[in-house]
Design brief:
By secondary structure, the chain is of the alpha/beta class. The chain has a single domain, classed as Ribonuclease Z/Hydroxyacylglutathione hydrolase-like (Metallo-beta-lactamase, Chain A, 4-Layer Sandwich), CATH 3.60.15.10. The protein contains four helices and ten strands. The strands form two sheets. The chain has a seven-stranded mixed beta sheet, with helices on one face. The chain has a three-stranded antiparallel beta sheet with strand order 8-9-10, with no helix packed on it. The C terminus is likely disordered.
């Protein structure tokens, strides 16, 4: 598996995990790992066909650190189908739009870990990953959410949603954000 480091300042890293050859039977999602200090978040970890390779890539990127968060941008199988595996093999908590929390258990989430599947409220939320603020903002039509990494790259100018936070707060905390759909 190939991991492309998109940002690294020695404390904060954003790694794109890619090149999962699953033949014609799988859709490639954009799996990312954001690591700050010794904590990390995996974004859109994918389905069963890529689970073991993404898990391996995530732990490699964490370099002995701890996976604390799993961000699920929406309910499609290429994003969430393997979430039970992630919840069973890590202590991380998974987050998805409140609209989709009732659909995810249909992918076989075990009752022992269901309490670690948390909703992202419609107004959005801030994650604390090792002391770094990552912001989830709902997208149009309540179809999902995007996550902002406060250190990597600028958020898209087309977004006028501020997660219920004052525009000055958003400008200060996500001035250099990395956003996913």
């Amino acid at each position: 598996m190939t991991g492309i480091t998109l940002y690294d300042d020695g404390v904060h890293r954003n790694i794109l995990l890619e090149d999962f050859e699953a033949g014609d039977m799988a859709v490639q999602a954009n799996q990312h790992v954001i690591v700050h200090g010794s904590c990390g978040m995996v974004l859109d970890p994918g389905g069963h066909k890529v689970y073991s390779r993404v898990l391996s890539g995530a732990f490699s990127a964490l370099a002995g650190g701890r996976l604390t968060h799993i961000f699920l941008s929406h309910q499609d199988p290429d994003i969430v189908a393997a979430v039970n595996g992630w919840l069973m093999t890590t202590d991380a908590t998974a987050y998805i739009s409140v609209l989709w929390t009732r659909f995810v258990p249909h992918f076989g989430v075990d009752h022992m870990v269901l309490d670690r599947l948390k909703p992202i409220p419609d107004e959005g939320m801030v994650f604390n990953v090792g002391g770094c603020s990552l912001i989830a903002v709902p997208v149009e039509s309540r179809k999902g959410a995007v996550a902002g990494d406060s250190r990597s790259v600028s958020p898209p100018r087309s977004s006028n949603r501020t997660c219920g936070f004052p525009a000055s707060y958003v400008a200060r905390h996500i001035r250099c954000g990395m956003w996913w759909r």
